[in-house]
Amino acid sequence: MDLRPAPLDLAAAEPHLPAPLRPIARRLDLRLARRDGMESDDVHYLSVGASALNVIRVALSLAGLPEPGRVLDFGSGAGRVTRWLRAAYPDAVLACCDLRPQDVAFCRDLLGVEAWASSADIEAIAFRGPHDLIWMGSVLTHLDEDGTRRLVDRAMAALNPGGLLVASTSGRAARAVQDHDGSYLEGDGWPSVKRGYDEGGYGYVDYPAGEGFAPGYGISLSSPAWLTRLATASPGRRLVMLAEGVWDGNGDVVALQVAPEFARDRDVPGPEAREAARLRDRVAGLEGSTSWRVTAPMRRIAAAIKGPDRG
Question: Is 85 helix (H, G, I), strand (E, B) or coil?
Fold first, then answer.
């Protein structure tokens, strides 16, 4: 493995980590890839991973799920979050994938996870499921509206029944950061992103030419309303969590669960169906009585349930 000479400095980072995660932090493998594309200072690097695990644990709790048995870190890089997942769920089958083959090879060698190179073609991506949990950090934030829809569909199809997709997005908090210091995007594309967000809830622009990124990879903003529509547009999905600015202080997080009971044909009934159900319940409560004060209303109720004679 091509390691950075010094391991991550947990002693410096630990006071900045959530107290419930500090025992888990002491089980972390602190070795770092020499060319980790997400490397910043050690405190921030470890805090971002801890923040991801924190929102994942909250989402699992809200969904009423036990510890996951099979987990995929989709877009893992060289293990910024993967190392936290390994420490938190040591008995789970843990997998990761990323566009950079050297990163997934590092995760495989360092953490003993299943690892494979992903694809820029959404339809060609291998998820190798089914999984109980998929974490997707800093992935949807770089896709256009159609790409986000298609990737979420693919991920949801790779989950077990009851499985959970937890993904980061960029919304109002990230917009404020970009407006303040321009740290996400250089060039003149930002007004277009904001216009798409304001008009339809989703804004996107490719990164500027010359920065080394392929077309179709850029920066996006998605509103809570847009994400809610995404969650509820397809049957069998439950919106477990939608929280703004909770990942690393500026990333939004959405959690979607495979939930067959939320299929469209089991939606809340309309007013006519609710009234018919109320009348049926009333009839059931009156059955067996011989009093005319009961039998006469029962005949009227039965007629109302049956409806007019159309013969």
Answer: helix
Closest CA to 92 of 73, 76, 68: 68
Instruction: Name the CATH topology of 10-264.
Output: Rossmann fold (3.40.50)
Domain chopping of the chain, boundaries: 10-264, 268-306
In whole angstroms, what separates CA 272 from the centre of its chain?
36
Exposure string of 40-69, with b = 16+ CB inside 10 Å and e = fewer, is eebbebbbbbbbbbbbbbbbbeebebeebe
- What is the Cα–Cα distance from 240 to 55, expressed in whole angstroms? 12
Residues 6+ apart with CB under 8 A from 212: none
Q: Is the pLDDT of residue 239 over 90?
A: yes
* 239-251 per-residue burial string, b: 16 or more CB within 10 A, e: under 16: bbbbebbbbbebb
Confidence of residue 135 (pLDDT cuts 50, 70, 90): very high
Give the whole-angstrom CA distance, residue 39 versus residue 263.
42
In angstroms, the CA 164 to CA 59 distance is 8
Residues 132 and 227: beta-carbon distance below 8 Å = no
Give the Cα separation of 276 and 107 in Å (integer). Answer: 58
Helices (H), the chain: 10-13, 22-25, 42-63, 82-88, 101-111, 145-157, 172-181, 190-200, 224-233, 271-286, 292-306
pLDDT tens for each residue of 259-308? 988 765 444 455 665 566 666 666 665 555 555 555 666 566 566 655 55
| Chain centre distance of CA 253 | 6
CA pseudo-torsion sign 286, 287, 291, 297: positive
CA 24 → CA 36, 64, 139, 142, 174, distances in Å? Answer: 22, 21, 25, 30, 28
